Amino acid sequence: MLSVVFSPKSVRSGLRTLLLSTALLGMAAQTASAQAVDNDADQGLNLPKDVTIFGKNDPNVRKATAIVNGRIITGTDVDQRLALIITANGGKVSAEEKERLRVQVLRNLIDETLQIQEAAANDIKIDPAEVNQSYERVAANFRKSPDQFNQYLREQGSSASSIKRQIEGELAWSRLLRRNIQPFVNVSEDEVKSVVDRLNAAKGSDEVRISEIYLSSTPENRDQITANARNIIEQIKQGGSFAAYARQFSEASTAVVGGDLGWVRPSQLPTELAQAATELQVGQLAGPIETVGGMSIIYVMDKRKVLTADPRDSLLSLKQLSVLFPAGTSKEAASQKAATFAAAVKEIKGCGQANEIGARIGADVVDNDNVKLRDLPPQLQDILVNLQVGESTPPFGSINDGVRVLIVCGRDEPQSANAPNPEQIQAQLEEERVNKRARIYLRDLRRDAVIEYN
User: What is the C-alpha to C-alpha distance for residues 371 and 385, in angstroms, rounded to an integer?
Assistant: First the structure.
């Protein structure tokens, strides 16, 4: 539905290792337009206007397991994958939401099975050693050894085999696409030049980096899809991971990268999304927004000017002074200690005095070099972007985390931004086309599959 322009993601980049990335892979096909059930708009199905159901099949009965071309997906498979999703969302999932997730997990496992089977049919086999290496990298992201990660997964109700199977599926599908699709995707020099020209023409205009969860709908299920979208929004507001829900529910090709659309100009978005993206501040969420063929939920990750140096890309050298509060400290006592700390910090005249005054007031002093301003929390970005070398932020923190300040010891201003080089542009355009063909490929696999639900 939306084109991704100059995202750094690539289908050639291999296994994604974001937060629980191996737990939440989904590549559902995208529906481009709503389907009507009258004879004129029904894409040739020739359905009657008045439908009478013969039989007792209840569409509300949810099947727990399935056999996909002879390969059994067990209830344990579903439970273990579901446990990973619940863990990724801090365990805060209602019973109703858990049932919806269970259905989606089964769909994802079916797609995963089809992808592995198709790769095997093309003589693509993933070496177990390669899977184990990827698993070790995932464990390292959690700062655990493989054995410690095995134990952690068991405690969460999941298992190493569940993640390893998903790693195998992702590697197999990626390799299959590289063999059967990528060699036949071509991007001409004229196309690349056209993109460069458009970027240069748009220099200085607003650009936004957003993530999207897209849910396809028809006039008949519109209310249900809207309710589902609102449930997802509520879960995210309660602390759920937007990227995790995007991987699990979004029907756009960007689901595999957590819904990240990359940097886009509002004019590149559908009108409804463009308006919301323009009005939202960084870190804000909007939806459900009705678009062609479905509903969208968007999250604004960042904003900038096209091909314009952004102060938030500055690299800072910082000193952090922090004081912790003893367990059981009251708000009043914490406020008093924070005031004393703030008064002492005001005496600091540049980073040269930070260590001396920190030692005097019993504060921990930590040096942080090459900190990108953009990577800090938005509240701190707004303060630090205007500070000069030697100046400090106001004290910030909480009773649990203590109170701290940041002192600017150095600042490397960003260089003037240039358009991505032709190789980057070509790679991005190729990725978009590969993703599009991959969705069609998976759709055809689903269509030809023999699936028995238990």
Answer: 13
